[in-house]
Amino acid sequence: MSLPQEDTTLTRRPAQAAKPAAPSPAEPHEEPGRHWFVNRPKVYAADVKGRFRQIKWAALIVLLAIYYITPWIRWERGPGIPDQAVLIDMVGRRAYFLWIEIWPQEVYYLTGLLILGAFGIFFATTLAGRIWCGYACPQTVWTDLFMWVERKIEGPRTARIRLDKAPMTGAKFARKTAKHAAWIGISLLTGGAWVFYFNDAPTLMSDLLHGNITSGVATFIALFTFTTYFFAGWAREQICIYVCPWRSFQSAMVDEDTFLVTYEDWRGEGRGPMRKSQSWEERQAAGLGDCIDCKQCVHVCPTGTDIREGQQISCIGCGLCVDACNDVMRQIGRPIDLVRFDTQSNQIAKIDGKPERVKLVRPRTVIYSLIMLVVACAMGIALMLRPTLDVSVLRDRAPLFVTLSDGSVQNAYTIKVLNKTHIARSYVVTFDGLRDAQLSVAGDEEAGSGGSLTLKADADTVATYRVFVKVPASAVKSGSTDVSVVAKEQASGEVGKHASVFMAP
């Protein structure tokens, strides 16, 4: 960063005294000073050109491309397995992310992703405020797209204001209809693309074109279409200001070294329009600063925030006001960056005549970085070392045991063998901790009997067996006996275990 040049001083200019608002008499049915609801003025965001507007366009294009293209990317996994690169298969109870396959038993990976996402936003906020909100939040991206469509159909800011104030005519009705039709079209594409993440995209597209979709798919497309249309077309900035929970506690993530959209009031105040015949020396003598009160920073803001009033919860940190103000400063021959991304410590340093600094390594950033690194490493190690075999055992509770005519005691178990590989496998199952135990499988003589069983599991499936365990009277221990159910894969030798108990009188 560099200090403003020319004759800009670093002394704080006195602000113009605000005229007190004339009190308005209360309505007869109202209590003075008590208002139940205040209508929020509609925001007519103006278009602007500049560096931050270009960054927002680039972010919008990249993010929308990722959203719409990802379901169509293929990833070969073998016969009988979906080849969609990213797929949440609700029917098959799987989640596929490129080469990674997540089973329902591994939902903790989702927890890890949520932790990474949360602390990633914390980290970004600590560095640059609500940069996520301004550039990458889905609400911002789709609202930006809807506003672009609105400007293309209804015209620039002043034209839209005049159109809304004008009585309904054929031309106005046609423009409004065209705008909402375009919004609904975008919303329909958005809802349809979201459903593609939960179904095979080419198959679902063919079903859509032939009108052969299930009621569940139709319901979700309608739901996501409506929410996109409502949030991005109607609610817009009110989602960011009133609904989004992040705006309530994002202030706890920032400090004096966080880059925020900042108005240099020591330069700009007091505000006042600029007359053509007025020199800057005359403005300074009159106590006026660089801000000519053109309100362009307010007009381009998607939430209608006046950044000159200081940091506010409604500011999403997009920086469009910086582009608008810089354009005005260039036109009137004053230094740019009256509104800029800056830190509180730098602003204080400028006023005191001290050098600026950029302090990225701080306790907050270090802690957030370490947390993300630990979680990412833990997830990576867990993925690399996760077994391809999982065994679960459920013992029958009614009855707890059966005493047979020869005095032996029998327990029944439901054993599930999870084969996470893409080939069929066989497993030798034993019960460790029971002496002279005899095992058998209900209705499956091929599994064998005796001290061990041979259980098979097809590729990428869970094989379920009902197993009976009989212990002779001479080997039975009264009460509960701890056992370990061990399944060993015959080819690779991989072992899976599950603890259980054997009950006896």
Automatic annotation (TrEMBL):
Keywords recorded for this protein, A-Z: 4Fe-4S, Electron transport, Iron, Iron-sulfur, Membrane, Metal-binding, Transmembrane, Transmembrane helix, Transport
Matches recorded under InterPro entries: 4Fe4S_Fe-S-bd, 4Fe4S_Fe_S_CS, Cyt_c_oxidase_cbb3_FixG, Electron_Trans/Redox, FixG_C, Ig-like_fold
The annotated region (Disordered) lies at 1-34
Where does the secretion signal sit in this chain?
none
**Locate the 4Fe-4S ferredoxin-type domain: which residues?**
282-311
Could you tell me which Pfam families the record lists for this protein? Fer4_18, Fer4_5, FixG_C
Q: Which residues cross the membrane?
A: 57-75, 107-128, 181-199, 211-232, 366-385
GO cellular-component term (any): plasma membrane
> Which Gene Ontology terms cover its molecular function?
4 iron, 4 sulfur cluster binding; metal ion binding
Protein name listed in UniProt: Cytochrome c oxidase accessory protein FixG
**To which species is this protein native?**
Azospirillum oryzae
